[in-house]
Design brief:
15 strands, D-Maltodextrin-Binding Protein, domain 2, 36% helix, 373 residues, alpha/beta, 15% strand, single chain, globular
Length: 373
């Protein structure tokens, strides 16, 4: 009997220790990208299980909850009146337009670099569209699915123009401001192993430190650097006081993120983005989409817009995503195609599309869609 009690006691202690280890995993098991895996119970939502898809939850709720940035002009930014705008924000509007026929049926949930992935894992947001790099570890170990890349970015360094830094190598021993919980930290350590990283949770506190000259350089994705530079305070020198160095020293493919094991929802998010790219390739814009739908010039446009083409009585193409077959008409008319969204948000912060990776493949870039059929 004594031996049996002893064994029971050992089992209880082991169970307590195991629970404690799980509770502490967010501190101990960080993979260096701020992406601590969180256990999820998504079920087999891609095959119609009893719990249903996130799509069902979104439709029942009547709004899309979209995780975004709120401090990067051009991508995810909140103005003085509390309005969200930016390239990523418009993709949230596009998903809402596809699901509800209303681009404003969306609730924005600002996320930091450290909270963004757990927000998807725990269901706090339906989709994350917040300059998040697609990596092997994030795709495999976090229970998340990455959609089509909507913006090909790369890491760079921004410095004060008066400090005389002309290359990344010239900051080999410098102190560099960086966002904590990002791939940026790892890339900086790889590229400038002799530098000192000064980490911050958000861009606002980082910018304050940079203005106070607590660091010599500011590293991030070049899109973020361009966005912050475009709104740099006049009292601190304004945009002209900053220089983004030419070298790009990482690959940062950015795009929407959804929970894993829910093919229904992931495909809706994915094909909204893909559809906007197809529309750009085919020349379907917010200005001509109604005419194109009424009189499609070819079968490819007809398929995209969910209308019939050819002989009388021909069936309209339906992607069978669980939403209207004509969802791309709403997306394009209410939000725009890929190029329209880019030109409205990214070009104004000083990153023209022409000549970059984010140009269409027809123009020498790598923005490319699978066939829509």
């Amino acid at each position: 009997m004594r031996t049996k009690k002893l064994l029971i006691g050992v089992a209880i202690i082991a169970a307590v220790l195991a629970i404690g280890a799980i509770a502490c995993s967010s501190d101990d098991d960080d993979d260096g990208n701020g992406d601590t895996p969180i256990a999820t119970d998504a079920g087999d939502n891609g095959n119609g299980d009893a719990s249903g898809s996130v799509l069902d939850e979104v439709i029942a709720r009547g709004t899309l909850v979209c995780g975004v940035n709120n401090s990067v002009p051009g991508f995810g930014f909140v103005d003085a009146d509390g309005n969200f705008s930016g390239f990523d924000v418009d993709f949230c509007h596009a998903i809402a337009a596809a699901v509800f026929g209303d681009p404003d049926a969306v609730e924005f949930s600002p996320q930091t670099a450290e909270t963004r992935l757990p927000a998807v894992q725990t269901g706090q947001v339906d989709v994350l569209i917040r300059n998040t790099t697609w990596t092997l570890t994030r795709d495999v170990a976090t229970g998340l699915t990455f959609a089509t890349t909507t913006y090909y970015d790369g890491q760079g360094l921004m410095v004060r123009s008066t400090d005389g830094f002309t290359s990344v190598d010239s900051l080999a021993d410098a102190t560099i401001c960086v966002l904590s919980g990002t791939t940026t930290e790892l890339n900086l350590a790889d590229r400038l192993p002799g530098s000192t990283a000064l980490g911050f949770e958000d861009n606002d506190t980082l910018q304050t430190a940079f203005i106070e000259e607590r660091c010599d350089g500011w590293t991030s994705d070049k899109s973020q650097l361009a966005g912050r530079r475009s709104e740099f305070p006049a009292e601190a020198g304004g945009p002209d006081s900053l220089v983004i160095l030419e070298e790009t020293f990482s690959k940062e493919p950015l795009g929407p993120v959804t929970i894993d094991n829910d093919a229904t929802w992931s495909q809706v998010v994915d094909f909204v983005a893909i559809g906007m790219i197809v529309a750009d390739e085919l020349g379907v814009t917010s200005a001509n989409v109604a005419d194109m739908a009424a009189n499609p010039p070819n079968v490819r446009v007809a398929r995209l817009l969910g209308v019939a083409f050819g002989e009388e009585g021909a069936a309209a193409f339906d992607a069978e995503l669980g939403i209207s077959a004509q969802f791309m008409q709403d997306v394009i008319s209410m939000v725009g195609n890929y190029d329209e969204v880019y030109e409205a948000n990214v070009a104004p912060i000083g990153i023209p599309r022409e000549g970059t990776l984010n140009a269409s493949w027809l123009d020498g870039g790598i923005i490319y869609s699978p066939p829509w059929k």
